[in-house]
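Re: weekly structure request thread

Next one in the queue (179 aa):
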Amino acid sequence: MKNFFKAIKAIYGPCIKGSAPLLSSDGTTLLTEKSQILKRWAEHFRSVLNCSSAISDAAIDRLPQVDTNNDLDLLPSLPETIQAMEQISSGKTPGSDAIPPEVYKHAEMVRQDPGHGSPGADRNPQHPCHAEKLNHFHLSCLRRILKLRWQDRNPDTEVLERTGILSIHAMLRQVQLRW
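Done, posted below.
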């Protein structure tokens, strides 16, 4: 995975690190030095997090206790997963996880996997065609990241070597050996 991010950094260049200027607590001075900005943020959070509470401990003790819902820890069922995947609309910008909806649409193995919900089922497709589809999609994404054209005729092994990432088949073999 480390090599993947190195490849991304080589393609897009280093990220620009810097901090935005910040106003002082009285609102008159613009702070630009990193040490001043850090001190200002520390001052801000100290005032926000360490404020005195007007609620008495007796009032807190009178609040009713709610039982913990352990069902929230369960994996979603296959019908719930299928329903969620059908509701995803393509062509939208990625969400907070930065995964485009098309990735979920192409990952049909979750939809068809009879072992869904068992340990390792999400990482171990039951049918070779699922792994093949996922590997094809994985390689096409890597080619797009590396800005390779189909006319270049780079073999899959070269694409994987350039990114330092294993193929889906190799990853699945590793996971199967761990179980």
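The first strand starts at residue 22 and ends at 23. The CA atoms of residues 108 and 130 lie 7 Å apart.
Next request, please.
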